[in-house]
Design goal:
GO biological process, one term: regulation of apoptotic process
InterPro entries: DEATH-like_dom_sf, DED_dom
Family: Belongs to the peptidase C14A family.
Order of helices and strands: HHHHHHHHHHHH
Structural class: mainly alpha
Oligomer: single chain
Keywords: Apoptosis, Repeat
Number of strands: 0
Protein name: CASP8 and FADD-like apoptosis regulator isoform X3
Strand content: under 5%
């Protein structure tokens, strides 16, 4: 067993089912494994994803799920060291990170209100199995109602449940993304140097 897989096994033993779901979503696996409802299925999926990961990726995932104890205990890295290392090496899509952050900030009443608002948008059987905003996000992505470039629908429904703080967070993300796109469009394109073997 590789050192990474040993670390993953230690990490996995400490993660909750919700933390496993967030990791699967961050890795892009929740949308293909949305039927993962049992803790054991989530753990198998998470283990599979993490064993194929590099140490830097594990650091970022643990930072995103706020498991600083595992950073320190298993990966032997402090939070500040990991944050410094990841300043220029982020691998997780910012959109997915945003969705996890927004999901974490929602309480049960917010989720119930969203489910009520989406009763005509999403099938009833999907809404009955919702455990977090991430489940809703995955289904809205499948319907192409939201994406990393298209978040107006989610912003509107968050405003409807009076979560202007979360709607504003999404608006800021959209503005930042737009400015980044404009900035990269303004820069001249350069060709990469050919690799010599």
């Amino acid at each position: 067993m590789s050192a990474v897989c040993r670390s993953v096994s230690q990490i996995l033993a400490e993660l909750s089912a919700d933390e496993c779901r967030r990791i699967c979503y961050l890795c892009g696996a929740l949308d293909t494994h949305s039927e993962l409802t049992h803790s054991s299925e989530l753990r198998v999926c998470t283990h599979s994803l993490l064993c194929r990961s590099e140490r830097v990726f594990l650091l970022e995932l643990l930072l995103r799920v706020k498991r600083y104890d595992l950073l320190r205990g298993v990966l032997k890295s402090s939070r500040s060291t990991a944050e410094t290392l990841l300043k220029n090496q982020r691998t997780l899509p910012e959109y997915r990170v945003l969705m996890c952050d927004v999901s974490e900030e929602m309480d049960t009443e917010d989720l119930k209100s969203l489910i009520f608002l989406l009763r005509d948008t999403l099938p009833k059987h999907k809404l009955q199995n919702v455990q977090s905003l991430l489940d809703i996000v995955v289904d809205l992505e499948k319907l192409e109602l939201i994406s990393g470039q298209k978040l107006e629908f989610l912003e509107q429904i968050l405003m409807s449940i009076r979560r202007t703080d979360l709607a504003n967070k999404i608006r800021r993300f959209q503005q930042t993304s737009q400015m980044t796109k404009q900035g990269s469009a303004d820069r001249p394109q350069t060709c990469a140097k050919p690799q010599t073997g």
